[in-house]
Each structure stands twice: as C-alpha cells, then as structure tokens.
Amino acid sequence: MNINTHIHHNHGTELHHIASIIPQLILALPFVFAFNMYILAAVRSSRNNRWPLYRTVLWSIGVLFAVIAVAGPLANLAHTDFIAHMLSHLLLGMLAPLLMVLAAPMTLLLKTLSISLARRLTRMLRSWPSRILTHPIIASLLNIGGLWLLYTTNLYSLMHENTLLYVIVHFHIFVAGYLFTVSIIYIDPMPHRFSFLYRSIVLIISLAGHGVLSKIIFAHPPTGVPWEQAKLGGMLMYYGGDAVDMMIIFILCLHWFRETRPRTGLIMR
Amino acid sequence: MAAIRNEDENSNSSVMNRFVYSNRNLWSGILFGIGLVAFIDETVFHQLLRWHHFYDKSTTDVGLISDGLFHAFSWFATIGGLFMFADLRRRNAIWPTRWWGGLFLGAGSFQLYDGLIQHKLMRIHQIRYVENVIFYDLIWNILAALMILIGLSLIYRTRSRQQLGKALSHEH
Q1: Which of A29, A268, B22, B78 has an alpha carbon 20 to 30 Å from B59's alpha carbon atom?
Q2: Is A147:A170 a contact under the CB 8 Å cutoff?
C-alpha cells in the first residue's frame, strides 16, 4: 500500500493510471471470486436438486452492480464527480447487497458443503460475533453510522488522498450494507431472529437516518464537493435510498403476510 | 334473530370476522391514509407543482428529524397498510366503512401535523413560496380537520359489538 501512495505522488500519467487501477482491482476481485464460487456451487448442487435459476440471476446482477461501482468508468468518474460517487454508493451499499442477499448464498453454501463442514459453518453462524454483527440495531449503526462519519467529517476528502482508506471505506460500505439487509429480511438461515415489529421499527429509523443525512449533504456539502453536485447527489441519495428501501419493506411485509396466513383456511382453498 | 339463522354461512362469517378484526381494519386504514397523503405530498407538491422545496434554510434540526421519521414511516405505512388490507381480504374480514374511517383519520392527522407543526413550527418548508401563504395554510389545515372529522364519524358509526345484530340485518 505504501508503494501505491508513493506512485500516486509521481506526476507521470502512466504511473497515475496504474495507481488508480490497483485499488479497483483489490475491490473488484473478491466479487469476481464470489461470482465464480456461486456459479460453481449452483452447478454442483443442481446435480441432486435443481438450485433455482432466479437466485443465480439475482446473484449475477448483484455482483455486476458491485463491480460497476468499484471498477471501471463509473468508479473513475466518482473520484471527481460527487453525483457519480453517490450513484456508485447506491449500487455498492444498497442495491448489490439486496440482490445478493436475495440469492441466498449461505443456503447454497450449506447445501454444497460436506456435512461436517456444514456443521462447522452453522456453529459459526450461531457464534456470538455473528450474533452481534447481524443484530438489526448494530448492523444499522454500522451502515448508517458509517455513512454519517463519511459525509459529515473530513473522511470523504481524506479517502480520495489515501488509497488504503479508499479501499477500507468501500469495503465497509458493501459489508455494512449486506449485514444490514441480512439483519432486516431473513432469506438465509438465521439462528437468532427478531420479530417483524422489531425489525420494522429499526428499518424505519434507519431509513429516516439515511433521509436526514441526504438532506444534510444537500445543505452542507462535504469538504471539497461543489454545492451544485452536493445538491444533486443529496437528492439522488434520498430518492435512490427510498427506491431500494421500498423493495426491502415490500419483502419484509410479504414475509409477514406469508407467516401469518390463516391455518384454518385450508378447507376453503 | 330468525333472519340471522337464514343467512348463508359465508356472509354470516364475514360479518363475524369484521368484528374479530375490527382493529386491524382501523389500523390498515390509518396506515394507508398516512401513506396516501405523504405520497400525494411528494408527487403533487414536490415533483409536479414544485411548490414544496426539498430543503429550506430555516428548517430547525428537530424539523429535519421529524420530517425524516415521518417520510420513512409513511413509506413503510403505505406498503404495510396494503398488506394488512390483503390479509383482511383473505380472512374475509374487510369492513369498508371502518377502513375508510381509518383512512380519513390517518390522512387528516398527518396532513394537520404536516401543516401546523412541520410547516409552521419546525419550518421544514412552506406550502408555496408566495406572499399570501396564509391562504394556502388555511385551506390545507381546514381540509385536514375536515378529513379528521369524517374519519372520526365513520369510526364512531362502526364502534361497538352491540351493533352486531343491526349490522347483520343491514346485510340484505
């Protein structure tokens, strides 16, 4: 990493180009790896019992959005343009995690692993660190709290000067978005569950925190962001967040609807 | 009571279910009413007419938080209220009068809160940025109060279990 920042200070355009490619590779490669693993597991597990195609499609689109957000033209533009930055964050922190959660990767993994390994994984999911990280309130704090830190302190401008910080922040945005989604909607096995009401209240407060932050960005741009870009970026964050949250709310309500179906109605339909 | 015995099984149980799920009818209406007013506020006043501003410099901090919470809550309420409606439907327990009562009460209450507390006290934004905004405020809040009154009267008309017999005889 030290070498990277060293190169960054050189003024050769070629070296500068390499310097911007390395963090993009570091961020994109885990997603490419995750994509390959998922496809491999889906093919393997389909030998016995077909793994649903729509889940594989969801995973592929989710990975694609995440890669678009961290590498390539949008990621390049995001260095200088706050609107592009916000679009890439909506993809990386909200839409990609949601699509990937809906692809049920843990279920697929448990299906593919040998029994002893699957048992060990289940034990890991039940452990206290996993319990803490997937607690709705903790996950919300990691997710929304992280965003508040990024946009209301000088972390945003620091991130563009330091490659290591840049990679950590982007990694955090995806992981926190994923943990948040997992803590609110239960697609994969979840050993420690919270009631619908509990998760609904946490979701509403998180959504509010997201909305308030986007208005604060609109009114008080982060250091180094021109006002016009901050205005549009703030509005994009506000309405883009609403759009993804609508899907999360819909799925949460749908799960409630299925779980509370009347059992006595069996004779009727 | 003879009339009740002659009722066919279905409508009889439908009326019974209404009373069992009386509160759910009310809450489904209230939640959807809040969501509906917030949706109209967003599409008509923010996006189409562009009278409301996304942000107003005079907004207080508590106004920003209140607006954020209500925006999030109304978004959830729209979807949640409709899922509750679907739930009542599959239980054959929809009570339209009571549901509409809830809708008017929810819509009116949120509009009155928005019009008095959020616009005037917390100054999140004005209805329209013109000289005589007081007229806009008056119409806004009077409409809200009217909706509350309509809602309360509908809820009052569907209030008690003692009306079971009356409701049954109205069925046919």
Answers
A1: B78
A2: no
